[in-house]
Structure formats: C-alpha cells, structure tokens
Specification:
This protein has three helices and four strands. By secondary structure, it is an alpha+beta fold. It has a four-stranded mixed sheet, covered by helices on one side. Helix 1 packs antiparallel against helix 2. The radius of gyration is 23 Å and the shape is elongated.
Amino acid sequence: GRRLRRTTRAQSLVEFALLTPVLMVFVVSVIDFGKMLFTYQVITNAAREGARRAAVFDETASDSVVRAQIVRSLSLVAGEDEVQFVAPNEDGTCAPMSGGAAGYVLVYGCGWSGARDSDAVVGIQTDYRTVLLGRFLGNGGGTFPLKTRMVYRNE
C-alpha cells in the first residue's frame, strides 16, 4: 500500500517534469503567433486608413496629413521614431525603392495627391521578431516579414 502510493507520486512528478517544458513552449508559441497576427492586422489597418485619407478628395489631404494618419494608426505597434517613409520606385509599380533600415516599419505610397480616378497606394512592411516560433519553423533568425498594400481610387 505505502510503497505503491510513493511510486505513483514519483511517477506523477516525473510526468509533470517531462510535460511542463513542452506545454510552456506551446503556450509561448501561441502567444507569439497571436502577437504576430495582431501586428499584421495593425499594419493592414494603417495602410487602409492612409490610403483612404489619401483617396478622399480634400484640399487638406497633403502628404503630411496622410503620413500623420498612418503614424497614428501604427501607434499600437511602433513609435513615431520607428516609422520610416521611403520613396516609391518611379517605374509605375509603386514598390519601395529600398529596403530601409532594419527594425523600422517601412511605409511607401504614391498617388496621394493624385487626380480623380487615379490610384492612391499605401504599402507597409516590417519584420516581426518572434520569441520562439521562428526557431521551431526553421526560420533561424526568428523574424517573419509582414507586408501589406492598399489601393484606393482617388475620388
């Protein structure tokens, strides 16, 4: 009786010791994935808000007003000093001209003061640095590129 009870307790302790690290890795990975999804949602919303602000005809919708809208929308994931605006290519694709500096949220756009029926484009990209997820999915650096692009027709 007594020996069997002691063995059962020891077995439970060993099982707990073996499963706890696996469970902790799983929980941290789920939280990390949720934060990455949240960051993607925020940059997508910021691109949408910026493109909408640029597309709606308004005399006050200058580049600085559109930029301020984008920075305000990005405030949940990046400070004002972490947002870097880069010039788009001039080949008509409105892609970023350069990669920009690491650790920044890169914003590019074109057509912000465009004529009616032209496109107002805002693109945002950043590298999301993970805690554990990247190491388990084979991404050695633990970073995932997040990119979004919104196109609205100028009204």
